[in-house]
Amino acid sequence: MFGRIWQIIVKEFLQLKRDRAQRWRLIVPPLVQMLIFGYAATFEVYHVATAVLDRDQSLESRELISRFAFSDRFRIVEVAQTDRQIRSAIDRSDATVAVVIHPGFAASLRSGDTAPLQVLVDGTDSNTALIALGYLGTIVDRFSTDYAADLARRGGAAARAAPVNVEFAARPWYNPDLNGRWFFVPGIAGTLTLMLIVSLTASAIVREREIGTLEQLMVTPIRPAEFILGKTIPFFVVGMAEVALVAIFGAVWFRIPFVGDLFVLLLGTALFLNSTLGLGLLISTICKTQQQAFASSFLVLNPFFTLSGFGFPIASMPTVLQWFTYINPLRYYLVVIRGTFVKGIGLDVLWPDMLAMAALGTVLLAASILRFRKSLD
Amino acid sequence: MRVRRLAAMARKEALQIWRDPRSLLIALLMPFMQLVLLGYGVSLDIKHVPVCTFDREASQNSQDLLKHFQASDYFTIAAVIGNYGALTGAIDRGVCRLAIVIPPDFTQRLSTTGGAVVQGIVDGTDTNTANIATGYAQAVVARYAAGARLEASARQGAIATIQPVAMQSRVWFNEDLESRNFIIPGVIAMVMALVGAELTSLTIAREWERGTMELLISTPVTPMEVMLGKLAPYFAIGLIDAALCLAFGVFWFGVPFRGTLATLFLATALFLVVVLGIGYLISVRVKSQVGAAQIGLLVTILPTTLLSGYLFPIDQMPVPVQAVTYLMFARYYVTALKALFLKGAGIVDLAAPLAAMALYAAAIAFLAARAFHKSLD
Question: What burial class does residue B369 get, using C-beta atoms within 10 Å of its C-beta: 0-12 exposed, 13-18 middle, 19+ buried?
């Protein structure tokens, strides 16, 4: 039995060795995609284009505006003179945020009244808008607090009021600067592996069927389970190399720390590869041509990618889609790869994800062996 | 060029699509799949962030502050914690994304000049969620502080200074900051790119693979007629898909459409010419269906997903990558789509992106027209 499996393994590696184009495809596109993904995938908000209209022209209004100007979150792109200019700056997307200070701003402040500050935000990109609003609030809040304290010290109108203040000191763990790349790059490594391994395995068996070499194999004494295993093991090795290549390249290029346990990551990767191989094999047993295999992999991979938590939180999805994520191996692997890269958590936390991937892998591989037996006749 | 031959070519291609139920199904069902997947699955609206609280003071004031968190829609209290060890565990295991720690001297420091500090420990793994949750938490604490200030000054009989500056923010174009409203318009670009590149990249390659190319070459049809005839049915499918997406997006997802249909049609037609032309070019060059589909995926889908601004804001990318996005035709279409849906932009506002797309379309059409030669090698 092992002899027969071994023969298939040798055959697969020989095939890979002699297919130069294929080897090329295994290395270059994943690295290019890692680069594009790594640079493009970001939800960070820095240097938001901001237009200001200061109709008060007071010390206070200038002080507030300078706080925006000196924050690295905002970049003042236009100092407007009229309301119309502000409107058109936002209409033309020259500015995402507009800050309008009305006349009387300083007067209200000095007399202890509340001075309104008008802010316009282009909500087209709701995520940027939301985060920018948060930063705006923080800057205005800090200005307010400082002003109140200042006033109290100078003995102004509001001096007798208690300077009650609560500061919220946010301390992000694991990723102190909230660098988005630390979140995305490990995720990209997992995603690219899923896509590559599924489409590779799916087309591998279908290709044999298409060329007619599958029938030749079937007249040999090999059994379906042996055949599947013999096919799986080389792809497993290729997959491991692929993860290593993409993850190491990404981590070195984008300087992502690795704080966890390498053994845990390797275990998780092995389990993840098992389930992606199972998925690819299952697709291959359903399809007759490489064309079909390609289309089916695409149809399957699309939801697996979107509904994995790669960039869009699972908790924000409707319940039905959340259920779907439970049969998605990428969902679990993302937890494992991010957990080991950035969080440094171990098996005591990650065991449910490991277990889920092991179960998925077993079911998928078993299903493809069963289907394969049937698809022979 | 003869209209009769062109029509015959188009008719043949349409019949071929019609009689291949799978590709027809993909062409018509894919828009729905993409819309459901991306419309529901890609939500960046963050609500009910799980929070752990660690109240080290357990006073009236600290409980008051925590009630503000409880009352907020954005947070759900996941656990009440009694020590730092449990807090570390809760964040490690992902029980909560945010832990609020109230120091033992909270009340005492509330009325001193420095003010009290509430610590927020954020799970920084998912940087975007962390950012948004921090913004919300800041707002909750600020609201509590304002209330406490008001109360304190009332107790002391002083003039109530609520907040020196009150920020009044108004969001334009996407008033409720729903991420769906900016994702759905982008999905149209995704679907167009998929239809265009995926299906057309197969048309010529299929003829080569099946051997029907020799038959085609022996007919009097000219290369120009082949191109236009082959692309015409896909152009129609693309427009139908765009209409389906528009209807589904507006009536099902409730995304506003504020522009004019004529401008949408113009932009879509230009974009279709580009993606169809690219698909055709690939198909002519790469004579295998699988190869064509793979290259099509890399050349059209990847840039449309990552470098178009459809999901990840372009102005947050590194400058060289931003420069690259100017070369991506999808960028202009996505800009136009978002402006049409949300901003109600007219043809004048969109002159620049439309001109860029027209330029692209002309260049691609020129290249495509010269690509196909009636020769067998």
Answer: middle
Q: Which residues of A touch B161 (CB under 8 A)?
A: 112, 114, 148, 158, 161
- By C-alpha distance, the chain A residue nearest B74 is A316
Q: Is the dihedral of CA A161, A163, B140, B109 positive or negative?
A: negative
Query: Which distant-in-sequence residues (6+ apart) come within 8 Å of B131 by Cβ?
Result: A43, A44, A45, A131, A134, A178
A97-101: strand order across its sheet: A74-79, A48-54, A97-101, A115-122, B165-172
Q: Which residue has the higher pLDDT, B290 or A42?
A: A42
Q: With an 8 Å Cβ cutoff, is B178 touching chain A? A: yes
The pTM assigned to this predicted structure is 0.86
DSSP character at residue B299: I
Q: Which helix (H) or strand (E) element contains residue A81? A: none
Count of CB atoms within 10 A of residue A109's CB?
Answer: 28
**Angle (CA) B41 B45 B46, round 5°:** 110
Angstrom distance (rounded) from CA B307 to CA A190: 20
Residue of chain A whose alpha carbon sits nearest to that of B142: A166
Q: Among the ranges B154-158, B277-281, B288-292, which has the highest mean pLDDT value?
A: B277-281
Which residues of chain A form CATH 3.40.1710.10?
48-154
B308 touches chain A (CB under 8 A): no
| CATH number for the segment(s) A48-154 | 3.40.1710.10
Take residue A271 and report the two structure tokens written for it: 């389990």
- Residue A340 DSSP one-character state: I
Q: Tell whether B65 is within 8 A of chain A (Cβ).
A: yes
Residue indicated by tokens 């970049």: A75
Given a contact cutoff of 8 angstroms between Cβ atoms, the answer to whether B207 and B216 are in contact is yes
Contacts of B360 (CB under 8 A, 6+ apart): B270, B274, B329, B332
Total residue count of chain A as it appears in this document: 377
Contact A144, B146 (CB under 8 A): no
In the predicted model, is pLDDT for residue A327 greater than 90?
yes
Q: Is the pLDDT of residue B271 over 90?
A: yes
- Structure confidence by residue, pLDDT tens digits, A52-94: 999 999 999 999 999 999 998 999 999 999 999 998 888 888 8
ipTM value, please give it. 0.83
Average pLDDT, chain B: 85
Cβ of A166 within 8 Å of Cβ of B115? The answer is: yes
Cα B249 from chain centroid (whole Å):
13
Pick the CATH number of B49-155 from 3.90.550.10, 3.40.1710.10, 3.90.1200.10, 3.40.190.290: 3.40.1710.10
